Amino acid sequence: MNIKGLTSLFIICLLVIFVIDFTNLKFTVLIKGKANETENLIHTLCIAYVASFIFYFLNVYLKERKEKNVMLPFIASKVIGIIVNN
């Protein structure tokens, strides 16, 4: 999954967290039975995903992007050298 798909899932999780924490809409209205346990599970999974996404974004995505920007001019100069010399 690319960063756009991960970002859209991140936004969905943020919305779910917001709905659960700050609105009166509760899953007890929507689901009968074990609604509180289901709501807690969804809330916990969303918080875990948000934390994981932030970790991934800061430690993997930004690092790869920085390395790509550093290596691209070096690789481009080598490719141009190969093309010109042949």
How would you concisely characterize the structure shown here?
The chain is an all-alpha fold. It contains three helices and no strands.
Description:
The protein has a domain at 3-61. 87% of the residues lie in helices and 0% in strands. It is built from 3 helices and no strands. α1 packs antiparallel against α3 (35-85).
Q: Percent of residues in helical segments?
A: over 70%
Whole-angstrom Rg: 22 Å
CA(first)-CA(last) distance: 39 Å
Shape: rod-shaped
Strand content: under 5%
The quaternary structure here is: single chain
User: Sheet with the most strands?
Assistant: none
- Low-pLDDT regions: none
List keywords for this structure.
single chain, 86 residues, mainly alpha, 3 helices, 87% helix, 0% strand
Topology:
Elements: H1 3-22, H2 27-30, H3 35-85
